[in-house]
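Weekly modeling sync, notes
Attendees: AB, CL, MP (scribe)

Item 1: holo prediction request
CL wants a bound-state model with flavin-adenine dinucleotide before deciding which constructs to order. AB pointed out that an apo prediction alone won't tell us much about the pocket. Agreed to run with the ligand included and paste results into these notes for async review.

Input as submitted:
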Amino acid sequence: MKRRACVIGAGPNGLAAAIVLAQAGLQVEVFEAEPTPGGAVRTLELTLPGFLHDFGSAVHPLAAGSPFFSSLPLRENGLEWIHSPAVLAHPLDDGTAVVLERDLAEAERSLGADGKTWRKLMQPFVEHWAELASEILAPLRVLPRHPLLMARLGLNGRPSARRLTQQFRSERTRALFAGFAAHSFLSLDEPLSAAFGMLVAVPGHAVGWPVPRGGSQSITNALCRYLAQLGGSVKTSTRVENLSDLPPYDVVLCDVGPRQLARMAGERLSPAYRRQLDKYRYGGAVFKVDYALERAIPWKAAECLRAATVHLGGTFDEIAGSEQAVREGREAERPFVLLAQPTLFDPSRAPQGKHTAWAYCHIPNGSEFDMLPRLEDQIERFAPGFRQCILARRVFSPADLERMDANLVGGDIAGGAMSIRQMLFRPTWRHYATSAKDIYICSASTPPGGAVHGMCGYHAARMALARMK
Ligand SMILES: Cc1cc2nc3c(=O)[nH]c(=O)nc-3n(C[C@H](O)[C@H](O)[C@H](O)COP(=O)(O)OP(=O)(O)OC[C@H]3O[C@@H](n4cnc5c(N)ncnc54)[C@H](O)[C@@H]3O)c2cc1C
């Protein structure tokens, strides 16, 4: 008799876990609450017919650089990465943009006076991306397998982003780095914000910041197809409220948040473990808008048309101010906006000649504040006439995001705050294991945390398999 496993949630981590279990010969069933698998990795017609929008993730350095995803036949199952000519553009008020080139030598040239410093900072990690990825996309180890590399990362990344950028001569390079560090939801004056900035920038050179042809759904579809080849199945529109509603399985892996797990598993978890889950903290949220556009965004700086991702927020100080506000529970007056313009490089996602844009800014968890005017003012600032290009828009408040995917609690897209405590004990010191020996948690609320890489699911399933022997 084959052993049977069940995975709750068909996000990238749930699907990764299901694949590891199926590869080991288990009969795997995945139950997904929503009608379409993928969680925050779905592409939907959110505005007008023919316009395909990424509901959640849009740009995928860590999916392209994921040790587990790289081992799977995803290309054979329809996944094709598209790289824009430049990794990223960061427009400034003088009508120009700082552009990050993927090739380090080109980046060195284009960053002028700071080129050498940038290269010196990034090169050791870019050259050893595979080793770095195996360290950072796993639970933090007391004794790392690559101690010198990790020591170097610690040395450069331990201070705040503000401190790290003091080595740059130009305001432009400081602004560029601020954009990377701001992905972390940390204040740019906090320790470790430099490390986050580096870990966002390094894959830009090492593997690029690609978008999948057809949208992020192509990642999910490739994972689902491969799972089916291994004999696994995904049942959609099936929300699991309580584990006791399920038939018996040898093991259950939950791609859900800690509080959902506590509700779902109830008495099967010890009271002490449930108390630990209740203490888990969520982090900042996002306010997101998807646009159907009449034409490409009319950037003042034409260089912005070379990059699928654009960071809008101006100088280091301005971006730092925006992130500080969110950290203090306030809505930023001039928010830092992350924008993706995938149809410039993948016309398959919109009717001929038309475009889409995906944009979000950070906002306190659960905030009901309408950031739309402020977010669009930031786009207009660098692309006057943007509002006239809009055919339709779809706005997602934090509550709207959570309605579309129960794991996005209060609009938190990273599965929980990235405090030092929650980096080490995510969601508890047991990591993927729970107090019940047949129940595991495998969502972004486990190490290594948010982003599309599938490594939470991979490590959780490996732990489950090791303990089943
Ligand atoms: C707006 C936004 C932008 C983002 N941008 C990027 C980006 O550009 N690049 C990047 O790498 N990452 C990005 N992310 C983050 C990334 O998408 C997530 O970190 C990742 O999807 C987490 O994967 P997961 O499998 O843990 O959870 P999810 O993707 O959230 O999937 C969880 C799944 O479980 C299902 N589920 C929950 N409860 C139940 C239940 N009771 N029964 C059945 N099913 C259930 C949900 O419906 C969902 O399908 C973004 C996220 C969002 C929301």
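Recorded for review: The longest strand covers residues 285-293.
Action items: CL to compare against the apo run; MP to circulate these notes.
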